[in-house]
Design brief:
11 helices
Length: 335
Amino acid sequence: MNDRVQKQLDELNKRFYAVYQVKYFEHALHLTLAGLVDPKAALVPLLEEQSIPGDSAAGILRIRITTEDLEEDDFRKSIKLQLVHLYHHSLETLLRLFLAHGPGIRCPWVEMARESSIPKFKKRVRDVRAMGAEWTGVNPEDEGIPYVFLPAEPTAERIPYLTAAKQWLNYAATATLDVFAYNSFRHGLAVSAGEAQLGWYPKGSDPRERDDAQPLIEARGDAIGILRRERQPDGSYHWMEETRWINVPELVMITWVAQKYIQAILTVGAARFAEGSLDSLWLPSYTPYEALKHGQKDGIRIDRFTIQLAFVEVPEQTVSDAAEPGQGNRAEPRP
């Protein structure tokens, strides 16, 4: 690499760490939670006309709203959808930053911009998901964990932090590869939000007939609905309607953890590429299992419920002899 290229990479690195919005997800969480706790109070600054300047061509945006007709329940549904979106977005950002800061990379900004192929990115995420659960120092991927998160001798005291980092990366990869949930938020907000309830009751204890009926297992509360499809052995796709219960404290906690790992990656990266300081470096020592287990009762937990629809997509069929040349025959989705 010639001196001119190296100088440009050094300049890109300095700008990247200088301007990266390190606390984006923390700030987004604070704003979102303010709206969840008290929608009207969160909107108070907009009750009086506010002027937001733009560039010389755009002029000034003047905005004023009223909360007289605000439907707070509907507003909170939107807030909860925003929390789910922040959850997915923060986990993907964590993965992209991790992959862009591995050994041998000279400019993480270039590496992130280069990763424009969705299939290639998903392949790399599957590799992250396949990593071992424990940091031992002997697994092939173990070199990259301290390099990215904790550039110091991996002493016995530091191993729990490295193990926790591997397991959080695994969690982030699993959530990101859940393409139907993530894409439903990213592309067109193709989700429904509301409350849902599901229960299994003992025989002879039908809640539609008895007010005192008690379920053996129950899930209730805030939920989102998505559509997804599953490929069958014959190549067809069966469509499913899936209800997923959401736990606001969990969403906030996991997004906050992702934010802390993002900060750690950027702190270490700035120290390596831009003469930054490691004084603010902090890593969680707990695993996803330990974090999600805290405060939960033992037993079976329902987090989703799926109903198979009668809607089936049939794969493309072979062109028949009677078909026009060049015209394939794709069967219509059938009930």
